[in-house]
Amino acid sequence: MVKKDVCDKCSKKATVKFNQQYCDDHFLQTIEKRIRKNIRKQDIDIKHQFYLIKQKGHEYELTKHFLKKIFEGRLKIKEVTKKQPKNNIYATSLDEEATKFLNEFFNNKKIELKGIKPLDVVMQKEQKEICRILQIPFEDKKDFLTQFEEQYPGTKYSLKKTMEHFKERKIQ
Ligand SMILES: [Zn+2]
């Protein structure tokens, strides 16, 4: 028997199929692990007060969900409508950040990479699956990068790497 429809990590039926395939539980676990790793790279000292910038949509709900899950209430987060002088947390997705980056890059604007973005490593198509599992309403936003990614798989991840490179070298 070919293990075609089975989760890569257990014997349950795979419900999410991208490069790897997972059951709902293992997909959530994989994403959470990726977000934890991403958060570790960002400047978070739990002694300080953090501000989650309010916005509509699933990115916001998912950011709240994962922050709660990962920090178990140890991180002081205040939901605010306006950007604070520091310690701002933004709800986003890899797609959104990559699109913003490209727009800024091509329009020769100052590249704004400040702020904590726990979900800038999670693609919209992955967020869609998480929303299904957690029963959070998802609205589809198909941008040019998503179409690009469909034609040339891997684009978003290469772009993310390029962004890291820029961040490390502090090119502005
Ligand atoms: Zn599994």
What's the helix and strand layout?
Blueprint: E1 16-17, E2 21-22, H1 24-41, E3 49-53, H2 58-71, E4 76-80, E5 88-89, H3 94-106, H4 124-134, H5 144-151, H6 155-169
Parallel strand pairs: 3-4, 3-5
Antiparallel strand pairs: 1-2
The total domain count is 1
Total helices: the number is: 6
Give the proportion of residues in helices: 40-55%
- Spans of at least 5 consecutive residues whose pLDDT stays below 50 are none
Structure description:
Helix 3 crosses helix 6 (155-169). The chain has helices spanning 24-41, 58-71, 94-106, 124-134, 144-151, 155-169, and strands at 16-17, 21-22, 49-53, 76-80, 88-89. The chain has one domain. The radius of gyration is 17 Å and the shape is globular. Helices cover 46% and strands 9% of the residues. The strands form two sheets. It has a three-stranded parallel β-sheet, with no helix packed on it. The protein has a two-stranded antiparallel sheet with strand order 1-2. The N and C termini lie far apart (54 Å). It is built from six helices and five strands. The protein is mostly helical and 172 residues long. The chain binds zinc ion. Zinc ion binds at residues 7, 9-10, 12, 22-23, 25-26. Zinc ion binds next to helix 1.
